[in-house]
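sry for the spam today, last one i promise. struct tokens for design, 117 residues
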């Protein structure tokens, strides 16, 4: 029995899976758009827009010389970061809306928000 149809089928499936992986958007890509920095006593960006309905990862970087606490009741996240430390915050698919975050150690720092659209 010839094996050519089986090999062709396997190659077709492999090509399809590879193409799908390349075309699927990645929201946890580690780009600047998915990073929140604490520096000069403020968060940058102040507002981060992310796609609603997709799980994502956000890197939080403490580029200051003071310990901060990245906290959000709406996201159910709370983590202290030492100077120079960074963390990766995994988030489930968010419903459309605003999700505030703040530095719980410094009440004078303006709140930021993650906006899922």
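last one done:
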């Amino acid at each position: 029995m010839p094996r050519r149809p089986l090999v062709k089928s396997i190659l077709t499936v492999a090509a399809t899976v590879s193409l799908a992986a390349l075309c699927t958007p990645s929201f946890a890509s580690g780009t600047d758009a998915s990073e929140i920095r604490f520096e000069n006593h403020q968060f940058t960006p102040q507002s981060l827009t992310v796609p609603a309905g997709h799980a994502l990862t956000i890197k939080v970087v403490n580029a200051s010389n003071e310990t901060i606490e990245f906290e959000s009741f709406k996201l159910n996240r709370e983590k202290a970061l030492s100077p120079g430390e960074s963390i990766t915050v995994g988030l489930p698919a968010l419903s459309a809306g605003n999700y505030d975050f703040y530095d719980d150690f410094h009440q004078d720092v303006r709140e930021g928000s993650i906006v899922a659209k």
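Confidence is low (pLDDT under 50) at residues 14-33. ok im logging off now
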